[in-house]
């Protein structure tokens, strides 16, 4: 059975974020809100790519991630394609009971704080003349996060973000970002930690750190904004119902 025509949710104006995360958000929302019901076939990859204005590789990667998470299944043959799973993962499978799923307002509040604090921290860090020790510490934190096992990733991710806040030169900013990271991690703990998401996060971290080390404040801010919006897109897709 083909997906229903009402798939316009997939093609609403995208936020300025990574194409992969935005694609994940649109597909997850469409599945979880029932716009593409259990057992229904998704449009072909080329059609999804056109609808979402992304590459077929991006669509393929997002669908592979959703298959790993149990939301879709692939079938071969004449009547094959990608189908929504007959039973999509329950809210409890994401680590939260349905009564405690965060609201869209909660996710947006955290995202707004991140835009103000973390994007600003990256811009300020890139605008400072960093010492050799500070540059080495930043490069080391990036390497540790990028090469970490999944079990350590969130901790080392937070350490990198806190170091960027420290390198902004504002001692008052560090505890604010520390409190914010606690809220961010509480949300991230409620969604699956999937390898493609980690890879994208690491790529974004590298762009942020490279811009800081090169002394490019605007590029650092833009890279951090893409990172923040990418995380937010995944949270919206996995956790919010409306």
General description of the model:
InterPro entries: GntR_C, TF_FadR/GntR_C, Tscrpt_reg_HTH_GntR, WH-like_DNA-bd_sf, WH_DNA-bd_sf. The protein is built from 9 helices and 2 strands, in the order H-H-H-E-E-H-H-H-H-H-H. Helices cover 62% and strands 3% of the residues. Strands 1-2 form a two-stranded antiparallel sheet. With 242 residues, the protein is mostly helical. The protein has helices at 19-32, 45-52, 56-68, 104-127, 132-146, 150-167, 173-188, 195-213, 217-239; strands at 72-75, 81-84. Helix 1 crosses helix 3. Mean pLDDT is 87; it is low at 1-9 and 92-99.
Question: What's the helix and strand layout?
Answer:
Blueprint: H1 19-32, H2 45-52, H3 56-68, E1 72-75, E2 81-84, H4 104-127, H5 132-146, H6 150-167, H7 173-188, H8 195-213, H9 217-239
Antiparallel strand pairs: 1-2
Helix pairs in contact: 1-3, 1-9, 2-3, 4-6, 4-7, 4-8, 4-9, 5-6, 5-8, 6-7, 8-9
Organism: Leucobacter manosquensis
Domain HTH gntR-type: 17-87
Keywords: DNA-binding, Transcription, Transcription regulation
């Amino acid at each position: 059975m083909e997906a229903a025509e009402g798939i316009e949710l997939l093609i609403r104006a995208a936020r300025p974020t990574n194409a992969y995360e935005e694609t994940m958000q649109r597909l997850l929302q469409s599945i979880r809100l029932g716009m593409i019901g259990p057992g229904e076939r998704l449009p072909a990859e080329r059609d999804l790519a056109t609808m979402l204005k992304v590459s077929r590789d991006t669509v393929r990667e997002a669908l592979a991630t959703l298959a790993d998470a149990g939301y879709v299944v692939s079938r071969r043959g004449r009547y094959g394609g990608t189908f929504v799973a007959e039973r999509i993962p329950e809210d409890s499978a994401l680590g939260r009971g349905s009564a405690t799923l965060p609201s869209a307002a909660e996710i947006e509040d955290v995202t707004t704080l991140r835009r103000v604090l973390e994007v600003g921290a990256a811009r300020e860090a890139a605008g400072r003349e960093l010492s050799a020790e500070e540059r080495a510490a930043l490069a080391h934190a990036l390497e540790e996060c990028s090469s970490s096992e999944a079990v350590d990733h969130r901790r080392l991710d937070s350490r990198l973000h806190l170091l960027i806040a420290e390198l902004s030169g504002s001692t008052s900013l560090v505890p604010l970002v520390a409190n914010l990271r606690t809220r961010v991690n509480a949300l991230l703990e409620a969604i699956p930690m999937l390898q493609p998401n980690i890879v994208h996060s690491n790529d974004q971290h590298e762009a942020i750190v490279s811009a800081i080390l090169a002394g490019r404040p605007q590029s650092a801010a833009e890279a951090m904004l893409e990172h923040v919006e990418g995380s937010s897109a995944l949270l919206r897709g996995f956790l919010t119902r409306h």
